Amino acid sequence: MDIQLPEGMRPASTRDWKQLGSITGEAFAQDPVNVWIFGNAQTMPPVFGELARSIYLPRGICHIYGDTGATMWAHSSQSRELNTLQTMRLVWSLMTKGEKGAARRGLGAGEAMAREHPKDPHLYLFTIGTRKAARGQGLGKKLIRPMLDAADRACLPCYLENSNPANTGFYVSHGFERMKLFEPGPGAPVMEAMWREPRQPLGSE
Fold first, then answer.
1. Which of 72, 78, 145, 200 has the fewest CB atoms found within 10 Å of its own CB?
2. Residue among 198, 197, 162 nearest 180 (CA)
């Protein structure tokens, strides 16, 4: 894909998995669905770091902006399944750092998200987030725009699950529309499945 990154933003490498986890964990510390799953914020960095290390760095597209923002994407054709060892590491983090039932809720939410996932080819935005101190500075737009522009050039739709209603306006402003609402587990806050059709790149006929 033709991905054009702004100054200060770079592709993440395999050695960045802990930093991806740290940034994403801080970004999602007050996210309703993730708080429901984990029960506390301290579980989030190791879990998101493990998902980065096992799935999104080797099989997806990850970007980092300094130490303040990060994104994790994957093409829908790439498997997001964990092998046995990776699953064990993830469950261990959930069991040792999360509140009671976190492993069950986390695995159940993953299964629910997989069931609701669209079948048509697309780019999947798994996470986008910034550290608390970097909010309100337009960094979210810098983080999401390169991949949306690349998707437009490749004529690919994009998909995400919005786990925080406060972010709906941000995604709508970038062309996403609600597909449906669904619960990632019994008694969980709802998630908003959102889809974005590719747009004609500026300057093209």
1. 200
2. 162
Separation between Cα atoms, residue 52 and residue 50, nearest integer Å: 5
- Which region holds residue 138: left if phi is over 0, alpha if psi is between -120 and 50, else beta? left
What is the pTM (predicted TM-score) of this model? 0.92
Instruction: Report the alpha-carbon distance of residue 140 to residue 158 in Å, rounded.
Output: 16
Nearest residue to 51 via CA among 6, 11, 95, 81: 81
- CA 16 to the chain's CA centroid: 16
Rounded CA separation 69/131 (Å):
6
User: Mean pLDDT of residues grouped by 10 in the chain (205 residues)?
Assistant: 94 96 96 93 92 95 97 94 83 81 90 94 97 91 97 97 96 97 95 95 55
